[in-house]
Design a protein that fits this description.
With 336 residues, this protein is mainly alpha-helical. It has 18 helices and no strands. The protein is 62% helix and 0% strand.
Length: 336
C-alpha cells in the first residue's frame, strides 16, 4: 500500500461523515496516474501554489491601490489569511483540510488588477462580462500551463467557482466562502485604520461588544461561531450572524465606498479601458498564447484574459510603454 493509499484510508477513519474524502471523489477531467505520496487534493494544492497566477497575486490590489507601506494587504496575503482561517475551521469540524486549503489558495487566481474597480470596468466593457470567481475557474481550467490548465479535481474547481455567493457542493467549499468574508472584513478594518480613513472607535459599539474590539478577538469569535454551529450546515448563531452582517454593511459604507480609498480608482479604470481598447484594435500585439485564444474563441475573450491576469505593476508599466512618450519618462534638466 502506498503512502497516498494509507492517507486515503486514514481519512475514512478520522474525517466527519459530512467531509469530502479523496476516496470515492477527487475525479479529474483528464485521468492521471495517482501520486504515490500525495492525495489528489494535496496535488491540487501544490499545483495552485506553483502556478504563475498564484505568484502574480503578490502584486495585485486588495482594497487600497498602490498603498505606501509594507503592511497593507495584497491579494496574495489575503489568500493566505483565508487559507489559514478556513483550515482552522475545517480541522475543528473534521473536514478535509487539504481540499479546503486547495480551494482557498485558488479562490482569487482570476482576480483583476486594481481590485474590485478593475473587476467592475472589465465587467462593463467586455461583452462576455467579468466576474472574478468565474475567471478564477477559467484560469485553472483553460489559461494556466500554456492553455492546458491545471486539471484540478471537480471538488476544488467547484469550490473556487462558488466561493463568493453560491452554495458549494462540499462542506469544505462552503467553509472557504465563510472564511473569505471573515478574513477580508477584519484585515480591511486594520488596513483602513492604518490608512487613517477609519478609527478603531468608529466601529459600531454593539458589534465590538459581541464580536470583539480587536482583529484577533473578532476572528476568534467568528471562527468559534462557525465551529459551534456544527458540520451539518455551515453558518453561525443568529446573534453572531447579525453582528457579522452589520459589520459588513458598515465597511461598505465607511471603507469600500470611502472617497479616500476610491480616489485612485478612476485612474485605474481609465488605464484598464485604454489597454482593452488598444488590444481590441491591435490583436497582433497580444502575446502568442492570447492570440490563440482570440482565434479559438474571440478577441474580447482573449483581451479580457490577458488584462485580468496582469498584476497592478505590470498593467501600469505596459500602459506607460504604450502611451507615455519616452522623453516624458526620462530625467530632464530643470528649466532655468
Amino acid at each position: 500500500m502506498t503512502i497516498r493509499e494509507q492517507q486515503e484510508q486514514l481519512e475514512l477513519q478520522i474525517l466527519s461523515p459530512y467531509a469530502c474524502p479523496n476516496a470515492g471523489h477527487a475525479k479529474r477531467e483528464r485521468p492521471e496516474m495517482p501520486c504515490p505520496y500525495r492525495t489528489a487534493f494535496q496535488r491540487d494544492r501544490d499545483r495552485i501554489l506553483h502556478c504563475n497566477s498564484f505568484r502574480r497575486l503578490k502584486r495585485k490590489t486588495q482594497v487600497f491601490l498602490s498603498p505606501v507601506g509594507d503592511h497593507y494587504r495584497t491579494r496574495l496575503t489575503h489568500t493566505l489569511e483565508v487559507a489559514q482561517i478556513a483550515r482552522t475551521i475545517s480541522r475543528a469540524l473534521r473536514f478535509n483540510e487539504d481540499l479546503t486549503e486547495a480551494i482557498a489558495l485558488g479562490h482569487d487566481l482570476g482576480h483583476s488588477p486594481f481590485g474590485h474597480s478593475g473587476e467592475a470596468i472589465l465587467n462593463r466593457i467586455c461583452p462576455h462580462g467579468y466576474r472574478h470567481y468565474e475567471q478564477s475557474l477559467r484560469v485553472v481550467e483553460r489559461l494556466e500551463k500554456g492553455g492546458a490548465g491545471l486539471n484540478l479535481t471537480e471538488e476544488v474547481r467547484d469550490g473556487i467557482l462558488c466561493h463568493t455567493n453560491r452554495i458549494a457542493a462540499t462542506k469544505e467549499g462552503n467553509v472557504v466562502r465563510v472564511a473569505d468574508r471573515i478574513a477580508y472584513m477584519n484585515h480591511d478594518i486594520e488596513d483602513a485604520i492604518r490608512a487613517e480613513i477609519l478609527r478603531k472607535e468608529d466601529l459600531p459599539t454593539d458589534v465590538t461588544e459581541i464580536l470583539g474590539n480587536t482583529k484577533t478577538k473578532r476572528i476568534t469569535t467568528l471562527v468559534g461561531a462557525v465551529v459551534a454551529h456544527g458540520p451539518e450546515k455551515i453558518g453561525m448563531a443568529p446573534e453572531i450572524q447579525a453582528m457579522h452582517d452589520k459589520l459588513h454593511t458598515f465597511l461598505f459604507d465607511r471603507v469600500y465606498y470611502n472617497p479616500i480609498a476610491k480616489q485612485e480608482e478612476h485612474k485605474a479604470e481609465l488605464l484598464i479601458e485604454t489597454l482593452y481598447r488598444y488590444f481590441i484594435s491591435h490583436p497582433d500585439a497580444l502575446p502568442e498564447e492570447y492570440q490563440k485564444i482570440a482565434q479559438q474563441e474571440d478577441i474580447d475573450r482573449a483581451v479580457c484574459d490577458y488584462i485580468s491576469g496582469m498584476s497592478d505593476g505590470y498593467a501600469v508599466d505596459l500602459y506607460t510603454e504604450l502611451f507615455i512618450p519616452k522623453g516624458w519618462r526620462s530625467s530632464a534638466s530643470p528649466i532655468s
